[in-house]
Each structure stands twice: as structure tokens, then as C-alpha cells.
Amino acid sequence: GENVEQHPSTLSVQEGDSAVIKCTYSDSASNYFPWYKQELGKGPQLIIDIRSNVGEKKDQRIAVTLNKTAKHFSLHITETQPEDSAVYFCAASNQRYTGNQFYFGTGTSLTVIP
Amino acid sequence: SAVISQKPSRDICQRGTSLTIQCQVDSQVTMMFWYRQQPGQSLTLIATANQGSEATYESGFVIDKFPISRPNLTFSTLTVSNMSPEDSSIYLCSVGGGGNQPQHFGDGTRLSIL
């Protein structure tokens, strides 16, 4: 099955700086890669996703890059703000088949220091 | 995206008892998923619940411990049976996935076993 590794496990940045979280996956059949943000007391919320036919996607201060050859993808947050502090999870899935499992990384606890 | 409501949001239970967690979605969905998130950990899939059929359990999870019902296309329950302190976790319901679409999560049930 798929194995998703995520680094770093914790990350502290000064407000206004950039944050980068990296994930690797093992199954070359995976073709869909969402990122989730989980705030304290809440469930994971989708913040951005990327499909395997795209190398990069951006949504305001958030961007995701995908390198299919190397089997890794990264989340980039620019101009970080205190409200970006949360736990972030990457995931990988083979979405060719309905209901295929999402495999989650181990999470990154991001702290943005005002 | 679908709005997912879970009940209860949290509970404290005595060991040896059972608790049923409810998941209600505001639209009809084919597949619903139940995850466990142990403290500070990632999401682990317990089972996939299709309406009208038996739930499919992942390795390490059994129906006797985690019975699931899926009576219609908007509702599911997960029961945590004969609870022990090791069952203290967040239990999350999700829907979606398939066709390069994300899964969407409820806010979870925070369960503590004394």
C-alpha cells in the first residue's frame, strides 16, 4: 500500500516569513494530493489540492508543488500570519477508483510567532 | 462542500462501556469513512461505510469492537465497544473522495476513557 512521509513534524516561523512542508509518497499510481489544516478542536479542513497532471497550483498565499518523478509534493505558505498556526496534513490517493483510500502524512505542527 | 455534523462532540466514559457516535451529512453521499486520530497523531482509517452493505474494515479494526451502521445515504453511526483507555482518541467522520475530489471531515468526537 501507499506510504506517505511528512517533514518536519514541527515548524516555527516568524510572522511574515514563509513556511514549507514536504511530503513523499511511495505508490506511483497515486494521482491526487490534498492538503488539510487542522485547528485545535476542529476536524481537518481542505486548504488546497493538486492532481498528478499539474506541477504547481497556487491560491493566494498558499501554493503546492508536485514532482511525480521524485514522488514528492510540498506546501508553501508565504507571508505567514498567526492564524496560520495549526497542524497540517498531506495526503495521497489513487483516485482512478471511487472510494479509494486517502493515505495521510504524520502531520506538521506550524507555529507562527507574532 | 458537504456539511458534516458529528454527535457527541466530546465525551468522558468509563472503561468497559460502549459509545455510539453519530454522523449526519446535509446531502446524499455514497461512501462515508470513519477515522481514528490518537493524541498528536495522524489519521488512521477504521472503515468505509456504504449504504446497504456491510462496512469494510481496515487491518487492525474489527466489527465486534467498532460496529458501524449506514441506514441511509445521509447518516452513519460508529460504536466503540467495551472501551479501554487505549480507545481515547478523536473519532472523525468524512465523506467524498473519488474522481479527484477531496474528502471532507466533521469536527470529530473527542473521547476520553477513564
Describe the structure.
Chain A has strands at 4-7, 10-14, 19-25, 32-38, 45-51, 56-59, 62-67, 72-77, 86-93, 102-104, 108-113. Chain A is mainly beta. In chain A, strands 2, 4, 5, 9, 10 and 11 form a six-stranded mixed beta sheet that branches. With 114 residues, chain B is mainly beta. Helix content of chain B is 0%, strand content 51%. In chain B, a hairpin with a 6-residue loop joins β9 (89-96) and β10 (103-105). Chain A binds chain B through residues 31-32, 34, 36, 41-46, 49, 51, 89, 93, 95, 97-102, 104-107, and chain B through 1, 4, 30-31, 41-43, 45, 48, 50, 92, 94, 97-108, 110.
Task: Describe the SSE topology.
The complex is a heterodimer of chains A (about 110) and B (about 110).
Chain A: E1 4-7, E2 10-14, E3 19-25, E4 32-38, E5 45-51, E6 56-59, E7 62-67, E8 72-77, E9 86-93, E10 102-104, E11 108-113
Parallel strand pairs in A: 2-11
Antiparallel strand pairs in A: 1-3, 3-8, 4-5, 4-9, 6-7, 7-8, 9-10, 9-11
Chain B: E1 4-7, E2 10-13, E3 19-25, E4 31-37, E5 44-50, E6 56-57, E7 68-72, E8 75-80, E9 89-96, E10 103-105, E11 109-113
Parallel strand pairs in B: 2-11
Antiparallel strand pairs in B: 1-3, 3-8, 4-5, 4-9, 5-6, 7-8, 9-10, 9-11
